[in-house]
Design a protein that fits this description.
single chain; 413 residues; alpha+beta; 9-stranded antiparallel beta sheet; 8-stranded antiparallel beta sheet; elongated
Length: 413
Amino acid sequence: MTTFPCPHCGALVAAPKATRAKATRAPKPSAALFAALEMAARVAERRGYSPALACVQCTPQDDGLLRLRAADAMDSFEAVVPLEAASWTGGTVVVDAVLLRDAAKAGVLSVAVGGTADAPLLALVGVGGVTRARPGLQPSDFPVWPEAPQGAPWSADAAGLAAALGVVGLSVSLDNHRYGMNGVHWESAEGGCRLVATDSNRLHWCHAAGVGGVRLPAWPSRMLLNRSSAERWARVAKAMDGSLPVTVVAGDRAAAVYGVVGGGRWTIVSRLINGEFPDYRKIIPTEWPREAVFDREEMTAAMAEAAKAATDRHHEVAVVLNSEGVVEMSVSSEGTGIGWSRSIPAEIRMPDATIRIGFDAKMVLDALKLCETTSPNAGLAHWCLGPDAYSATRIHTGDPEAACAIMMPLKLD
C-alpha cells in the first residue's frame, strides 16, 4: 500500500488508488485546461495572508468537465473546461494554483483526490507513472463565490475590447490614494462604449465597438474597473475565439465578463472601484491652433532613442515645431549640453513661427502605441497643441473620437 505523510499531523495516510495507475506515455495537456489553469494562477492571491486565496478550487462536473475557481481581493475567476486527455477521480479539492498549472504543463495523465476529510491529498500521475502527492485544503476553506451582477448584457468584439483595455490601461494611475483614477472608466458612446483612464499627467481614451453597433447600456453604477481587473479582462478577450463576442454585465458594486476560450466557458466577476472618476473633459482644450502631421513609425523610432538618451526620471525631451515643416527633438545631458538630437519632416499648421515644448518621451511612446494598436494601417499621426506651451496636447491618427492620447507638457529649464 502506498502511503504519504499527512501534511497536518505527520501520520501516514493511504494514497488514492489512482496513484498506482501506470502510464507509458504522457499525452499533450489539454489546451483549454492549461489556459484556464494559467489564468487561475494569475488571479490567485500570492501574498500569503490567506492560504486558500493562493489556491484553485477544482470540482469535477458531468460529461467530462472540470470547474475551476480562483479569487483575490478584487476578482473571482471561474472556468468550466473539458478534461480531454486528463482524468479526474474523486470530489472537490482546493490545491495550490501554480502547482496544478505546472503539472498540467508537464503532462499529467490523471488526478485523484483522496486522504481524509480533514486532510485531503491530491495525487498527480505524470510521465512514466511517476506519482506526486500534494496536500489540499477542504472545499469549505475556499472563499464564498460572489454572485454575478444582474443587468442588461452588452456584447463587444473580443479583439477590439482587448486592444482598447490594453492601451487605455497604460495611463491608469498607480497612486493607490487616488481611488477615482486607479481604474478604467467606461461610458456609453455611439456604436459601443468609450474606455478612459488618466494619471493626471496624461489621459487615454479608446472606443470599443459593440456587436451590431449597440451602445453600452445605461447601467445603474458608474463603471470604474480596477487596473488589475482590466488587465485580466483584456486577457480573457484576447484569448477568445475571434468569431465570438465577449459579454459584459455590470451592477451596483460588481461587473462580470463572460467568454468562450478553447471550448471552455470563462467568467470573471470584479469589484468596481467605489470612487468618482474625474471630469476629464474640463482639462481638454476646445481649440487646437497648432498641428503637426508626421510619419508615425519615424516618430516612434525617434522617441525610443530619446527615451534611452534621457537620464532624468521624466525622460524629458524638448520638441520644437517651426513653420518650415520640421519637428526638432533634443535631449540635454547634465554637464555636457546636448546629449541627443534628431529632426523629422512634418506637415505643420501653426499661427506662429516656432514653439518649444517639453514632453516625457515614455508618455509619447505610449501615445504612439495607442495609435498603432487602434489604427495599425494608419501611417500618419496627428500631434495637436493647445493655445500655449503649457496647455494639454493630443495625439491621434485622424479620428480623435475613436482613440486619443492627451498629455500635459513638461516645464523646460
